[in-house]
Amino acid sequence: MPPARILVAQAIAAAAVLLFAVSVDGEGKGMVLSLERASHEGVGVSQLRHRDRVRHGRLLQQQPSGVVDFSVEGTYDPYLVGLYYTRVKLGTPAKEFYVQIDTGSDVLWVSCNPCKGCPSSSGLQIELEFFDPPSSSTASPISCSDQRCALGAQSSDSGCSGQNQCGYTFQYGDGSGTSGYYVYDSMYFDSVVGSSLASNNSAPVVFGCSTSQTGDLTKPDRAVDGIFGFGQQGLSVISQLSSQGITPYSFSHCLRGESGGGGILVLGQIVEPNMVFTPLVPSHNRGTIIDSGTTLAYLAEEAYDPFVTAITETVSGSVRPLLAKGNQCYLTTSSVSEIFPQVTLNFAGGASMILRPQDYLLQQNSIGGAAVWCIGIQKIQGQGITILGDLVLKDKIVVYDIAGQRIGWANYDCSSSVNVSTTTSTGKTEFFNAGQVDNSNSADNAPSKLIPIVVVALLLHIAFFGVTPLL
């Protein structure tokens, strides 16, 4: 008997926060960022959930060229507890830094020399670096009277030192924090215009020079050189590059779900025929957060219980339900794709996101030759917020069209290349192909013939502005 399809939707005005990609209409600019995923093995769902909650606590409230291309590395696996990061080159001579990609905050900052509490080694098997402003011939501090110092107040607690340096302090909900001062220096990237690659292009940007870190930021196990904020405030790199006419004010991503991992991160809209879109709805208190920094996925309380109940009732004749550390799990000797239903998330505008069993289930272990699969989607109580993390986002192109106030997605083989739309100075639309191989291997989006089970017949809206941190 084929598994049923479960339809899930919510009556929530949602706020969408994307920890990666960027894409928008805008004068023909685009950027592709390197995305890497680092990991540790042997972690259960409860530990993944704990780390996600720590991550949610760190979400801060916020409000003619071509495609800039960064390489993408890493691997995806929920039990490897990955971290997505990219590499940026700063200063003269250029120095490379590994930075976590974070749409929950605005500012790019890296550890500087000297730095109190900053880790000097990383369990991610990367070599950590420290930015040294005096060693860069193009670096200059931002003074307190500089108007860009006032922009910093939009994203952090700003202050001025006796040396007339514009300082900042970021305090995250998990208790970690960092402080330092703002620096103005060159950022380097490769730009693709048409079929031509121009290396070592640069643009001046303001970024943070961290001189102190506290809390989890000091721990070496998952340490990187800094955080790359993808928010909309004036000091975000996206805002700065967009205002200089270098990149569009938008982003897209495609995360490969197989063990090979990797993915594509683009400033410039990815074009895919099967893309569906839903409107972005401004909201400050309730919403859906699309966050690559979250390993699992989280449903608002009013949708979660019917969701789990429907799945359990659908498969109860073929599996043995059990609870493991508070998580709903199932013991089975069969393939989950043959037993468990597809889940459909319905959004405003008629868009749907179809989740395969492997998009909401995680294999924990085995007992007597039978595999233990647990629901990776967790419950958020009393906040009206849904968070779609890596578990759900993998093997999909996600386009975050800020200019058009919409977000879109399509199932896709993320090991394939993608087409990125750009507009030339003459107004002609052209396409830049990014990725490793031909993109004719796009995943088939046609749904199988399954019996629909309606869990909640309500609409889900996605909003971009005003995401409330989860503590």
TrEMBL record:
Name where it mostly resides. Answer: membrane
Q: Which GO terms describe its cellular component?
A: membrane
Where do the catalytic residues lie?
D102, D291
Tell me which InterPro entries the record gives.
Aspartic_peptidase_A1, Pepsin-like_plant, PEPTIDASE_A1, Peptidase_aspartic_dom_sf, TAXi_C, TAXi_N
The positions making up the signal sequence are 1-26
- Looking at the record, the residues that make up the Peptidase A1 domain are 84-410
Q: Could you give a single Gene Ontology term from the biological process aspect?
A: proteolysis
Q: Which domain of life is it from?
A: Eukaryota
- Tell me where it resides: Membrane
GO MF annotations in UniProt: aspartic-type endopeptidase activity
Keywords attached to this entry: Aspartyl protease, Glycoprotein, Hydrolase, Membrane, Protease, Signal, Transmembrane, Transmembrane helix
Pfam family example for this protein?
Answer: TAXi_C
Report the PANTHER family cross-referenced here: ASPARTYL PROTEASES, PEPTIDASE A1 DOMAIN-CONTAINING PROTEIN
Protein family (similarity comment): Belongs to the peptidase A1 family.
Q: What is this protein called?
A: Peptidase A1 domain-containing protein
Give the source lineage, highest ranks first: Eukaryota, Viridiplantae, Streptophyta, Embryophyta, Tracheophyta
